[in-house]
Amino acid sequence: MAERMDLEMLWQSLETRAALTPEQAGFVFSPAFDPHRERLFGMADEVRRRVLGDEVFLRGIVEFSNVCRCQCAYCGISALNAGLPRYRLTREEIVDTIGGAVAMGYRSFVLQSGEDPGYTADDLCGIIGAVKERHDVALTLSIGEWPREAYAAFKAAGADRYLLRIETADPALYARFHPHSTWENRHRCLQDLKELGYQVGSGILVGLPGQDGASLGRDLEYLRALRPEMVGIGPFIPHPATPLAGAPGGTLAACLTFLALLRLYLPDAFLPATTAMGSIDPQGRQKALRAGANVVMPNVSPMTHREEYQLYPGKICLTDDAGACRTCVERMIVGLGRTVNTGQGHIRRRVY
Ligand code: SF4
Description:
six-stranded parallel sheet, four-stranded parallel sheet, binds iron/sulfur cluster, alpha/beta, 13 helices, TIM Barrel
């Protein structure tokens, strides 16, 4: 009876978008919620359909450097992985890679790299400017923590969006996995990006060692307060060349639960069905698209370096070029009764 009463209160909280109590958050991320999970996914899917319609947006990812100065304990390309061959694309290679994907119908790109000290802010401005001059595309940067002045320079050079996951809203948990930086600086970066007028993407890792349901509830509230234009979440997947090699990974059920809650709390945000979800379950991205997601981010990087950019093991699509990915992703989207948006996919804020 007590559980039924709690459930009624829980559904009421979700329907009214009230903050979850730590107990409610703990419950929805526990196995006890399994019999009710599909109802939550259905609610999120309905909000997505009602607020945003059936379109799915494509963002082509260009992984232009796997050099990174950081030591994120879960990441396969961190500076700690001394055995990994490193690469860095030139400006022309980046511009040409995007040109090839534009010919296949992509109009929105994410330039992603480690925090590579081999590029100065001026170098990156040159790359951004060259891409925007040659191609009529929307450009998202995913290149980590920089001073505010650098973010301002990237924006002036033509960057439209910036993706920087907070990873966790818990500063103590953050400190365990990021010895090179502080949570406060990460948060500062996100505030700077918002103030500078970027369309901001953030997100978290689900399943980090030491993370519990109450912690995920706080992540949800952090993201709700930040109100980013996009939120990408992925399961923690232990990489054999990292200090967390032996830790248990995050589950798809927990990721989909967080995704569905995000859709309820941020109805108009872009929420990707992430490649990492598809890497722990062959139907991971399809399930995410049925639980609130409305974005897919195919890898359009040159084939030559795909193997060397594995933040986590078992990453899918390493052998599919941009054209094959485009076909495969479109088939997946259409197969779900959805349509592919072929535009640049800028945010349209709604009243909700
Ligand atoms: S997660 Fe990003 S910043 Fe951290 S080590 Fe990996 S590439 Fe570098």
